[in-house]
Amino acid sequence: MRLLTRYCDFKILGGKRSFFGRKKYDLGTCNLVEPGIISPERAVPDHIVKPDYYFGYKPPGSDDGQPEIKTVDQIHGMRESCRLAANILKKTCDITKEGLTTDEIDAYVHNEVIKANAYPSPLRYMGFPKSVCTSVNNVACHGIPDDRKLMNGDIINIDITVYYKGYHGDCSRTVLIGNVDERGCHLVSSTEASLNEAIRCCGPGQALCVIGRTISRFAKRRKLTVMPAFLGHGIGSYFHGPPNIFHFKNDYPGTMLPGMTYTIEPVLTLGDIEAEVLEDGWTAVSVDNARSAQFEHTILITEDGCEVLTLPD
Ligand code: MF3
Ligand code: CO
Ligand code: CO
Predict the structure, then answer these.
(1) Taking the domains of the chain in order of start, what are their residue ranges?
(2) Around ion ligand 3, which residues have CB less than 5 A away?
(3) Does ligand 1 lie within 6 Å of residue 106's CB atom?
(4) Is 229 exposed, middle or buried (0-12, 13-18, 19+ CB in 10 A)?
């Protein structure tokens, strides 16, 4: 696909430049990331209960159909898997620092998940080769852990999903490595705030499209852009299912109902909306090399509001 220069230190688009008929973006400074070397698959011990796709069964590909309304037992299962995902995400963010490779992060996550008697959901999901997604700088989403060392000034999204007692719990955060420039800090804090704003709007009887409206309005106020290609999703005994959660302004149908569990996971960028997937079939990068940030929670719609399930203890 595209040839990206590894570790090339540069001021993207010379900082601020205007193109005829295009918007102005101040992209700040960062290191451009391109895929590195991926280590062999990590083993999962026999006693860990694995999802069907581990054995080569294709997960149900369709996002159509009605969102599942969870029973009390299913909600209990979701609470447990989500809390585990959140606790491992917190620990992982705490150890993430300059000099660590994303493969070392993968090893850490893999071992923590297995120690907790859970399965790292990304591994073998639709052929994904690793146990966590690590997306650095211009990688918007689904970055594959590799031998690249984290550098001062990087921003990295760590997206952890665990499969525990039959349920997936999914969450992610973007972490600052060392001294990140002002634009990067603005991007990361605003993206987290946009997720929190959207969560505040969730409750029974609300239209699902208030999520996208809220996030896009918030992004606009912060002079940032939502990358529309990346959606949240229903989640349960399956990793991805209905409803689709759009993070951009839309008027698509659908209502939040008690017992629904879904993720909200906006990707905001300093640059333009376009993303493309590299030849590895996973790594989604911004076309303009701009940085993006992402935060993700799994939430439950309750009788009187919503509950964030992916909160650490
Ligand atoms: N955790 C991601 C999400 O938020 C999905 C990763 S799919 C994988 O939906 F295969 F890359 F792991
Ligand atoms: Co995720
Ligand atoms: Co998700």
Answers:
(1) 2-10+69-308
(2) 170, 263
(3) no
(4) middle
Please work out whether the CB of residue 142 comes within 6 Å of at least one atom of ligand 1: yes
CA of 17 to the centre of ligand 2 (A): 34
Cα–Cα separations (whole angstroms), residue 270 to 25, 88, 274: 7, 29, 12
Determine the Cα angle at 246 with ends 194 and 289, to 5°.
70
- Predicted confidence (pLDDT) per residue in 266-309, tens digit: 999 999 999 999 999 999 999 999 999 999 999 999 999 999 99
φ, ψ for residue 149 (rounded to 5)?
-85, 140
pLDDT at 64: 72
Q: What is the pLDDT of residue 61?
A: 58
Residues 6+ apart with CB under 8 A from 25: 13, 16, 270, 271, 272, 288, 290
The answer to whether domain 2-10+69-308 has CATH 3.90.230.10 is yes
133 ligand 1 Cβ < 6 A = yes
Q: Kindly report, residue by residue over 88-119, the tens digit of the pLDDT.
A: 999 999 999 999 999 999 999 999 999 999 99
* Ligand 1 pocket mutation pick from 113, 119, 121, 294 by most atoms within 8 angstroms of CB: 121
Residues within 5 Å of ion ligand 2 by Cβ?
159, 170, 172, 296
Please choose, from the candidates 306, 297, 289, the residue with its C-alpha nearest in 3D space to the C-alpha of residue 137. 289
> What's the pLDDT band for 60 if we cut at 50, 70, 90?
low
Rounded to two decimals, the pTM is 0.93
Q: Report the C-alpha gap between 99 and 180 in whole angstroms.
A: 15
Q: Is the CB of 170 under 6 A from ligand 1?
A: yes
Number of H helices, E strands in the chain: 4, 19
Which of the four pLDDT bands, split at 50, 70 and 90, describes residue 257? very high
- Condensed to tens digits (0 to 9), the pLDDT of residues 164-182 reads 999 999 999 999 999 999 9
